[in-house]
Amino acid sequence: MGRTILYNWPGIGWYPGVLQERITDGRIKRSGNNCNFYVHYDVDDDSVPSALALNDYGIDGEGGWLLLDALP
After folding, report:
1. How far apart are the first and last CA of the chain?
2. Distance from chain centroid for Cα 29
3. How far apart are CA 15 and CA 7, in angstroms?
4. Mean pLDDT value of segment 24-47
5. What are the residues facing 39 on neighbouring strands?
């Protein structure tokens, strides 16, 4: 937790967020997909449930996401 991601929002594009908490409750869904993390976005100062799927990792399209690592 505390790691920064980039998420490709529909109509907005890439925007950074910070992983806040893992979601294990299968009832929390977004667009029919089970959410697995709360991600905090500065744009609205809110943590939102997010479905970060492995098959969307690195995809340059809506719903794609990347995990950012700090340089040493």
Report:
1. 19
2. 13
3. 5
4. 94
5. 19, 48
